[in-house]
Specification:
This is HTH araC/xylS-type domain-containing protein. The protein is α+β, with helices and mostly antiparallel strands. The protein has helices at residues 13-32, 40-47, 51-62, 66-84, 89-95, 101-112, 116-126, 131-141, 213-218, 263-270; strands spanning 150-156, 163-169, 181-185, 188-192, 201-207, 225-229, 243-251. It is globular, with a radius of gyration of 19 Å.
């Protein structure tokens, strides 16, 4: 992505590097102090920028506001703790900066797709299963639309025919149930349908075949995770012709937002036979 100034002119390599380092410093502060009340001014100070300039620079590099990015990392860290620790849900809630367990549970469920307790049980049940196998089952369960409005072309990634998941999301952060979903073997294409009067941003993710379910849901290993995002949202109307979107997969960067959509949600879409009925009861 070419960075531009407020006047629309490309910035110099030196400026782009300064912006990148500023954003990385603020992200480091977020991740080190997830349990603290981090204001825009505090994050701007970590970036060595004014709050106004920091907000603009951060959005240009991450396609997200600092507040949304921080909220995403809080849920991402909660996912990691639920997957790898024995901490109670209440302790996880407090660790990532939520004062109310009810608020945390509601927010986690909204963006991840399942409540924290069920998320933990599902991860424990499938912890060492290759993520690739689960995605393959998901792909087999998804029927392609008869009249696709958007054709998404995906290439890049590990380069071994790995499967990529494509989703139509309401923004640059892969969270909440997507408006459309498809699985494609890279390189390849998939057709999707966008709901009427809905702006959707196509995003794609792919993991190397060696990644397990537990590793995928924690998504802390940048080297084995690949992502791609369309330049912006797509909004179709009756006069719009079918469009094609190209998504070149690349390794995740520290400035990329975390992947919040949970594997358990993909499992639920792929078919109930993937989920043991003893795990079906939802609780906090």
């Amino acid at each position: 992505m070419e960075l531009t100034s407020t006047a629309g002119r490309p910035v110099t390599e030196r400026t782009a590097d300064m912006w990148s380092q500023a954003v990385l410093r603020s992200i480091g502060t977020m991740r080190e102090h997830l349990g603290d009340d981090l204001s825009l001014r505090t994050l701007a100070q970590a970036a060595w920028l004014s709050p106004f300039h920091f907000h603009r620079v951060f959005h240009r590099l991450t396609d997200s506001t600092p507040a949304r990015f921080l909220a995403a990392w809080r849920i991402a860290e909660a996912k990691r703790l639920l997957a790898y620790s024995d901490d109670s849900v209440t302790d996880v809630c407090m660790h990532v900066g939520y004062a109310s367990l009810g608020t945390f549970t509601s927010q986690f469920t909204r963006v991840v797709g399942v409540p924290p307790g069920r998320f933990r049980r599902l991860v424990q049940a499938y912890a060492d299963v290759p993520f690739h196998d689960i995605v393959e089952r998901l792909g087999a369960a998804l029927a392609p639309p008869e009249h696709p409005e958007v054709t998404v072309s995906v290439d890049g990634g590990p380069g071994d025919g790995a499967l990529a998941v494509i989703g139509l999301f309401d923004g640059a952060i892969p969270q909440r149930r997507p408006a459309g979903c498809a699985v494609v073997r890279t390189p390849g294409t998939a057709g999707l349908v966008i709901p009427p009067d809905t702006a959707c941003q196509p995003l794609a993710m792919c993991f190397e075949r060696s990644v397990t379910v537990r590793e995928a849901v924690a998504a802390t290993d940048l080297d084995r995770c690949y992502v791609a995002a369309a330049p912006g949202p797509i909004l179709l109307d009756d006069a719009t012709s079918p469009v094609t979107v190209e998504l070149p997969l690349r390794r995740r960067r520290p400035t990329d937002p975390p992947i919040l959509l949970a594997l358990p949600l993909l499992m639920a879409v792929a078919g109930a036979d993937l989920v043991d009925t003893s795990l079906a009861a939802a609780d906090c």
